[in-house]
């Protein structure tokens, strides 16, 4: 069953140099997922608070920006470089660290994003890391794609 719920507090992805506190995001008025807003939390990873907490059955979702015009590379700038076998450690607010192992990294066009594939329930604890990617649309000031990293819990929380 795993540990009781506890929000993530820190994420470490050694292969791409990520060591970030984890903020929290919810939904925009149009029911799309929020992303970290401009300001002091912009360059942090952020847990989607309507997903399960790390270590619980199902996908826990953590998002982060790829970059910003003002500051350049952001927390998930190198997310697309992750490959199967890479590891991710998420430390929860209760102090437990949940280890995950990447099993896929995929890019999807935002206009055909497979929400069911990314957010649907899973038989065990999993992690989804999401950032923008692909070409930049100057007219909308947004990237056209999303990169999603799929990872499974690779051991009990410690």
TrEMBL record:
This is Class F sortase. It comes from Actinomycetospora endophytica. Transmembrane segments: none annotated. InterPro entries: Sortase, Sortase_dom-sf, Sortase_F. Keywords: Hydrolase. CDD domains: Sortase_F. The keyword Signal does not apply. It holds the Pfam family Sortase. SUPFAM superfamilies: Sortase.
């Amino acid at each position: 069953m795993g540990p009781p719920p506890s929000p993530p507090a820190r994420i470490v992805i050694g292969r791409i140099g990520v060591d970030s506190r984890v903020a929290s995001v919810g939904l925009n008025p149009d029911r799309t997922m929020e992303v970290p807003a401009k300001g002091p939390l912009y360059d942090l990873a952020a847990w989607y608070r309507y997903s399960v907490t790390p270590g619980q059955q199902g996908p826990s979702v953590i998002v982060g920006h790829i970059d910003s015009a003002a500051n350049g590379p952001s927390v998930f700038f190198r997310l697309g470089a992750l490959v199967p076998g890479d590891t991710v450690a998420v430390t929860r607010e209760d102090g437990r660290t949940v280890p995950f192992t990447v099993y896929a990294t995929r890019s999807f066009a935002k206009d055909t994003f497979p929400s069911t594939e990314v957010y649907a329930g899973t038989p065990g604890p999993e992690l989804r890391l999401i950032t923008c990617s692909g070409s930049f649309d100057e007219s909308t000031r947004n990237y056209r794609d999303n990169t999603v990293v799929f990872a499974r819990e690779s051991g009990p929380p410690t």
